[in-house]
Backbone:
C-alpha cells in the first residue's frame, strides 16, 4: 500500500507568488504535503498560469456582486471541491473574498491564512502601507489559523523585517513578501508533519 501525502488546497486571487513558493516546496522530494488544487475567484489572474506551469488542477469559483464576497452557494462548492480532492488543509494565499460560513465549519481548525503584518497590528487591506504610516521600525508577516474574525485566529508563525528610512509601501511589501514565501511553506510543513498543537490562542510546536 502506498501512503498518500497530506493534501492542501490553496485559495488565491492574484499574483500568486506565495502559491508559487508553496508549489515549489511541495514539489521537493521528502516534503510532507502536496498541492491538490488551486481555487480562485479570478480565472484571469496570474496565479492560474502558475498552477498550469506546475500541473496543479485549478477551479474557478464565482465572485458575488458585493465586493469581497462570493456568490451564493460558492463557499459550499469550495467545500465540495476540497472534500472530493481529500484535502486536509486549506491555505489562503491572497484570497480576496471573505469566508464566513460553510468552509469555516467544514474545515474548522484546518484553514491557514498569510497576512503581511505582525498581527494583531495592521489587520485588513494595505498592511505594509498601514505599518509605514504608523511609523513602526520593524514590520513582517504572520501565518495564522482562520476563524470568523478578520485576521484574528491563533498564530502559527511570524517573521520580522526592518523598516528602512527610504522605504515606500512597495519596497517594504517586497521585503515582507520574501519572508511570506518562507513561512507559508514552513507552516504547511509543520501542520502536515503533525507538529502543531493549538492550545487556546497559543499554537505549540513540537520539536
Ligand atoms: C500577500 O502579501 C499576502 O500576505 C496577502 O496577499 C498577498 C498575496 O500575494 N494576503 P501573492 O498573490 O501571493 O503574490
Residues:
Amino acid at each position: 500500500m502506498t501512503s498518500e501525502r497530506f493534501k492542501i488546497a490553496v485559495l488565491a486571487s492574484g499574483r500568486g507568488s506565495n502559491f508559487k513558493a508553496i508549489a515549489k516546496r511541495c514539489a521537493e522530494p521528502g516534503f510532507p504535503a502536496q498541492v491538490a488544487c488551486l481555487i480562485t475567484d479570478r480565472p484571469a489572474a496570474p496565479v492560474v498560469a502558475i498552477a498550469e506551469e506546475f500541473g496543479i488542477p485549478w477551479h474557478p469559483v464565482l465572485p458575488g456582486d458585493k465586493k469581497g464576497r462570493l456568490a451564493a452557494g460558492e463557499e459550499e462548492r469550495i467545500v465540495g471541491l476540497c472534500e472530493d480532492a481529500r484535502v486536509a488543509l486549506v491555505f489562503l494565499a491572497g484570497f480576496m473574498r471573505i469566508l464566513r460560513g460553510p468552509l469555516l465549519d467544514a474545515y474548522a481548525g484546518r484553514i491557514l491564512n498569510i497576512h503581511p503584518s505582525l498581527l494583531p497590528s495592521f489587520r485588513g487591506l494595505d498592511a505594509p502601507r498601514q505599518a509605514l504610516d504608523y511609523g513602526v521600525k520593524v514590520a513582517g508577516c504572520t501565518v495564522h489559523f482562520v476563524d470568523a474574525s478578520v485576521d484574528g485566529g491563533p498564530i502559527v508563525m511570524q517573521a520580522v523585517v526592518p523598516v528602512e528610512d527610504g522605504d515606500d509601501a512597495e519596497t517594504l511589501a517586497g521585503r515582507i513578501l520574501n519572508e511570506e514565501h518562507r513561512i507559508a511553506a514552513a507552516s504547511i510543513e509543520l501542520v502536515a508533519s503533525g507538529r502543531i498543537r493549538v492550545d487556546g490562542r497559543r499554537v505549540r510546536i513540537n520539536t
In short: Strands lie at 6-11, 33-40, 58-60, 89-92, 111-115, 138-145, 155-162, 196-199, 202-205. The chain has two domains: 1-108, 114-142+156-207.
